[in-house]
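Intended use. Records like the one below are meant for learning the mapping from a protein sequence to its folded structure. Do not use them to infer anything beyond what is encoded.
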Amino acid sequence: MGELTKNDLVFTRGQDGALISQEVALENIEGNPTVKIIPLTRGKLQEIYAIATNGTPEEKAKADNDVIKNGLVSPKLTEQEIEDIKPQMALAIVQSILAISLGISQKEVEAKTKEQLILQQEYQLKKK
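Structure written out for the chain above:
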């Protein structure tokens, strides 16, 4: 690989300055339906991560909703619809947004999520 270019380093923005959406298949949903999403910037990822790891239980529960609210372009959902989203769909959408934001595959996001859940469970067992 040659020298990095600016396009390698930053997300692409349109004429209006907004991040350009990408159509991606939800790999963990039967039939691989597609959605349009935009990547989350480093600042937004750090903000959501801080809430997910250090927030109150209520704040942690809203972390996935924040990812969907900030990353899902189409279909466009209201805040109430995001609250009512089916868990398996929410997980698949969040994984796809994190994948393009971090430059990794949805499968890698899924593996890291499972790894974190196992570590949290082990921590909880040690506390008892």
